[in-house]
Amino acid sequence: MRNALFALLTTASPALAAGPELTIYAPEYFASEWGPGPKIEQGFEAVCECDLVFVTGDVLPRILLEGQGTEADAVIGLSMDQTLRARESGLFAPHNQDTSGLTMPIAWTDQTFLPFNWSETAFVYDETRLASPPQSFQALLDAPDDLKIVIQDPRSSVSGLALLLWVKAVFGDDSKQAWEKLRPKVLTVTQDWSEAYGMFTDGEADMVLSFTTSPAYHIGAEDDKTKHAAIFPEGHYLLAELAAQLKDTDQPELAQKFMDYILSPEFQGMIAEANWSYPSKLPDDQLPAYFADLPRPEKTLSFPEQEAEAIRKPALDEWLSVFAG
Amino acid sequence: MPRALSAGGAVAAFMFALILGTLGIVAVHAGGLSALGPWDLRAIWFTIWQAALSATLSALLAVPVARALARRRFAGRGLLITLLGAPFILPVIVAVMGLVSVFGRSGVVNEVLAWAGFPPVSIYGWQGVIIAHVFFNLPLSVRMILHGWQAIPSERFRLATSLGFEPGDIGRHLERPMLREVLPGAWLAVFLVCLTSFAVALALGGGPRATTVELAIYQAFRFDFDMGKAATLALVQVGLCVAALLLASRVSRPAEFGAGLDRDDVIPAPGGWRCHADGAAIVLAAGFLLVPMLSVIAQGAPGIASLPGAVWVATLRSFVMALISAVLAISLSLALAQSVARGQRWTEFAGMLPLVASPLVLGTGLFLLLRNVTSPTQLALPVTVAINAIMALPFALRILIPAARALQRDYGRLADSLGLRGLARLRILTLPRLARPLGFAGGLSAALAMGDLGVITLFADSRNPTLPLKLYQLMNSYRMDDAAACAVLLMTVSFALFWLFDRGGRIRAAL
């Protein structure tokens, strides 16, 4: 009886792949059947003679709680705001990849954290509901207040935090005034991206804080060409997701092999339509055509990690003083 | 001969160890508690007043609805009572979807207002938080107060009728003493629920003005990695719980109606305008509670058939896990309720603790504790089952305590004098007498367990996902239509679980 119950609860087939186990911590969305995880697992296991296991959850907090005793051999899905804290933990080892050939809008020189995909923050709209979207960030601030947008909370969401930095990068010392102009247009602030995006697709808001690559999902998966990212000449803030290997892994060769695999054409080719973002090393002509045709901003904004961390707290206080003051 | 420690005492001790112990582990791991900043203090203040307002509104609005349901008889009454309980067991995200579709910018209410030429109303802001909390908790208050009405022995109403009592006299001699006993408990339960709710406050709060303590804990965990602060904030929540419990216990007085003969008589219902008022209370409550759910169903139901197979497997898994959680929750809460009824008040406090335990801090403490024993991934499912049972415990306990007290008061001495003890007492006296509240408590626990994500930040097993986890994954992969269908599925199964237990309890009680 007890065994039957256990079998019922854990229907997943035991690992089919033979060989040593490579444990990779990943965010929940990444390893789900609708994320890139399963394909990557299959692809890597075909070449590594090992069993790749994704362990999901909040990746960095978990690693920091575990310290050197962590069972992770590598991690994937860290966000750019986490690199400083991750680096200071001293738990991670260099990725040993040549990053000069990356197809990213900025040069990447970090030797520890390896980007595997990227996108930029953007406000996404539906042309059937918003015929004339603002043509610049300034125009968005100057738009009438009945234009309603949904954003995410910078205290609980990566994209919400990226918006803080985006505003800082565009408006600098005038950020507070920018927030004050934006505030009446903010319908609500959600805890995470999915809630805000759901409100947008339900027709509750005219624009939602999302990514320049979000329209690709609607074109590729739903054949819906009405969703667009408003491209602003002031520039858009870079969001990359990163991978790294642990210094104290008991599978150093496999972890290194996984780092190599990340920049391989096979891995890179899976990203666009599984992660709905740009792969970090793939020429445009190898992207699906509709993906390569997405409008791209002329300018990509990004703060170095030290600067981003220094900006975060004051920018957060500024945001709170406008939105909660 | 008194035993050293009753079952209830053991459960209570375990709850203390678990909730305060995990908090302590987190604090020790962090090297002590950290100080709070000005924004944290504002979050604490907002948390308290929105919880107090939500609880007061829920309790006050519930009285006319519960009275109307208690004394009126109409076709479909039983079904309506069950359906009105549904919002409480809805997963937060589903409820928010429903409320937005009714009260939101493009919702039904605003479309009607626009058609009639009125300016739109906004749900976003503190009013949204309160509407959502009343939506969630009115069902709980109605049910708890309705139980109070039903617990007044019908002989008292017959006596009142033969004495020629007017509605005002019935109010003074029967209803108000009952409310004095039941209302503080109902208020307390809602207050504590609202203390720890944070997803609701955020989505409908319109901005960071509506920040609750639980969000501040998440921020400390995810962005600042300041576990000391997380522990401090969790401790503040426990402190608020103690204060609220003390307050409620000072206000609550037992009604002392004595034992009745369990006749299933109808409570006398006054006619005239009171009949119309009762009708209006029922219609308004039903409209407020059921329309958002109908809207969610209308949106998601068409997509259910095309949900991928993995979702169905997850549904079955969650169903079984919820059953185990429910049995665990009612076993623990029955033990606690009986020791509360025997006068051990401290066990009641232990049983209410999970309500204010921060799931994130509890999960982090458990993680630190268990990771040396075995892999947290291996433990994901058992930990989820256990945490869901423990999180449902306070609700089950609140439902059982009044009934267990009445049982002890009315039958305790007789049972003692007959030497009825142990399993025999459980089988012959306790279970049959408490069947109705036990069924309700079990249904509630199962439904809550079905809809809960558990502590996915640290204990998730992506190879064996639960249904709420699937919903979360769908939403995070742009698949909002599938997510809507998944939400309807989740709602249906939660409700079915609730109905099964609740029905079972009522049938058993009728035997």
UniProtKB/TrEMBL annotation, chain A:
<keyword id="KW-0813">Transport</keyword>
<dbReference type="Pfam" id="PF13416">
    <property type="entry name" value="SBP_bac_8"/>
</dbReference>
<dbReference type="GO" id="GO:0030288">
    <property type="term" value="C:outer membrane-bounded periplasmic space"/>
</dbReference>
<dbReference type="InterPro" id="IPR006059">
    <property type="entry name" value="SBP"/>
</dbReference>
<keyword id="KW-0732">Signal</keyword>
<protein>
    <submittedName>
        <fullName>Thiamine ABC transporter substrate-binding protein</fullName>
    </submittedName>
</protein>
<dbReference type="GO" id="GO:0015888">
    <property type="term" value="P:thiamine transport"/>
</dbReference>
<feature type="signal peptide">
    <location>
        <begin position="1"/>
        <end position="17"/>
    </location>
</feature>
<keyword id="KW-0574">Periplasm</keyword>
<dbReference type="GO" id="GO:0030976">
    <property type="term" value="F:thiamine pyrophosphate binding"/>
</dbReference>
<dbReference type="GO" id="GO:0030975">
    <property type="term" value="F:thiamine binding"/>
</dbReference>
<comment type="similarity">
    <text>Belongs to the bacterial solute-binding protein 1 family.</text>
</comment>
<dbReference type="InterPro" id="IPR005948">
    <property type="entry name" value="ThiB-like"/>
</dbReference>
